Task: inverse folding
């Protein structure tokens, strides 16, 4: 089962007929994801990729029973798309769109907070439960089924961690790309907590980056709640203070959100911290062996 998405998920694509939506929906379908339709205003009643197109998310939910949505909508309209999905009763909303205005995301986050739904992203690669459902833009072939969960702010490092985990003789339960924007729906701590409570996940890889306090908050929660080994990595170790690196949220604002400060907190809280992403898979394999011996 893992978390967030599985083979039973009924997925719709918002921005279904656009270039990005079409390309990634095709990849998701080929992976085996149960894509039941999509939404493009003004194109309701048409068929695309052998799936029905609806004018609104509400129509899509009523006709397909969809419970998961992935959003490929331009930044100016993406926050409205998030709120529309929440209003229609979608349980897991995954927003891929990058560059949504911060003020729009403030409203969208507040709107989803009062409803029975989980927002992942924006500016994220999505969520994949290996061998069951890919709801995102990640290369599916990298993710082989197993029992290691991944939580990451970085898309490419998510794929790197998954590849190393598989090559080290393990596999992936669920990988969650939480997104790198200043305001996102699901924090590192919330994602880690989901995987810590998942009976099909034996270990967790937590990938963060400079800027913000999410990794420290997750580490402090793990200090009291770590029942499985956690391997951590922080990207941006050579980044100068005050300069944004890649993601909009990846900017050092003070002494506590540097890579070194985050790594120190993580180590103090019992996380197996690696200085290089090249050591993620090897360190997780060793941590699992150590946990088995202790048990």
Result:
């Amino acid at each position: 089962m893992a978390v967030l998405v599985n083979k039973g998920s009924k997925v719709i694509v918002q921005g279904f007929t656009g270039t990005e939506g079409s390309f990634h929906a095709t990849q998701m379908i080929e992976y085996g994801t149960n894509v039941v339709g999509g939404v493009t205003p003004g194109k309701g009643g048409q068929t695309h990729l052998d799936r029905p197109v609806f004018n609104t998310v509400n129509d899509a939910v009523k006709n397909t029973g969809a419970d998961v949505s992935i959003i490929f909508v331009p930044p100016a309209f993406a926050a409205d798309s998030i709120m529309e999905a929440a209003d229609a009763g979608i349980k897991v909303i995954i927003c891929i769109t990058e560059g949504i205005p911060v003020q729009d995301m403030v409203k969208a986050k507040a709107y989803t907070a009062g409803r029975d739904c989980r927002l992942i992203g924006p500016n994220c690669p999505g969520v994949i439960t290996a061998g069951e459902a890919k709801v995102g833009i990640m290369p599916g072939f990298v993710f082989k089924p197993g029992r290691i969960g991944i939580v990451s702010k970085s898309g490419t490092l998510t794929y790197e961690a998954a590849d190393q985990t598989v090559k080290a003789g393990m596999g992936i339960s669920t990988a969650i790309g939480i997104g790198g924007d200043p305001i996102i729906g699901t924090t590192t701590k919330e994602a880690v907590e989901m995987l810590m409570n998942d009976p099909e996940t034996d270990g967790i890889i937590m990938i963060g980056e400079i800027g913000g306090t999410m990794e420290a908050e997750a580490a402090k929660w793990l200090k009291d709640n770590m029942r499985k080994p956690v391997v951590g990595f922080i990207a941006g170790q050579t980044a100068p203070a005050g300069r944004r690196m890649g993601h909009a949220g990846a900017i050092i604002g003070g002494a506590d959100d540097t890579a070194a400060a985050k790594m120190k907190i993580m180590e103090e809280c019992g996380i197996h911290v690696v200085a290089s992403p090249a050591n993620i898979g090897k360190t997780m394999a060793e941590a699992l062996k150590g946990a088995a011996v202790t048990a």
User: Anything to note?
Assistant: The chain has two domains: 8-122, 124-294. The domain at 124-294 is CATH 3.40.50.261 (Rossmann fold).
